[in-house]
Amino acid sequence: MPKFNQPLSGLITPRFGGIATWGRLPHVPLDEAKGVDIGIVGIPWDGGTTNRPGPRHGPRQMRDQSSMVRKMHQVTHVVPYDLCNVADLGDCPVNPANVEDALQRVETYFKKLVAKGIRPLSMGGDHLSSLPVLRALGEKKPVGMIHFDAHTDLYDSYFGGFKYTHGTPFRRAIEEGVLDPKRTIQIGLRGSMYDNDDFAYGEKMGVRLVRIEETIEKGPKAIMAEARKIVGEAETYVSFDIDMLDPVYAPGTGTPEIGGFTTREAQALLRELRGLNLVGADVVEVSPPFDPSGLTAYAGVVMMFEILCSMAEAVAKRR
Description:
By secondary structure, the chain is of the alpha/beta class. It contains ten helices and eight strands. The chain has helices at residues 58-65, 80-83, 99-115, 130-137, 169-175, 197-205, 212-218, 220-231, 263-270, 295-317; strands at residues 38-43, 86-91, 119-124, 143-148, 179-189, 208-211, 236-241, 278-284.
């Protein structure tokens, strides 16, 4: 068994001690990353936010809360750090004053990451952060996606024609040919709507739209069985918006919607990702100013760990 990066043990140094990196992993800047299979990356940017701001502060609080995540999965007993090399690569460059420039900076960073053969697991940041990551991952061939969210993020524009907000990233990704709509499923959709344009567009393009009512009625295994069939064995991205959870569990987010999933239900869904060819993932929209307690951030990093376990298995399977 090759020796990979290991988290700092809470049995040696208390979990409240040490420098805050994700999961207490080593910090390895991208330029120095050699032999890294999965890179944890922060995207401290919320230039696409249209409602309550604050996700730019998400990565810092999520790193702090991630000290509570131990190394072994409690159900599967997977230890992702024994399967592949994982490191915290730090935060990618952003520009809080200019949306287009920020998107370019993030895209450039993730293209360098992909060129090194690293699979990204990022934390936002608002949901527009997913677009430049998809541009990097889907540059040569569009990827499929399993998307957990209260919202489709398939709107065309906001505020009289502005194309880049956290409500538009996946429409742009489909238009740009980096996301395959016929291999995309969105799970947990709910809440009041401006209109039906986003749903109509998704249906037209072949996206599978799953409202939360259908998810609850059929159950996580049935919904995820369909998701697995949709994405197949090809390269797949996972995007998890924290507002997928009910605000009781995740009040710290920009666009909360009541009637959401419990953390336990979300974990049950994510555990069905095992065996898929996961080439990247993100957890976004954690806004610490609306939850100083850190519980929203903690929920976010636990979801990241669920995804990480399946990503690590995907890496190990394809060595």
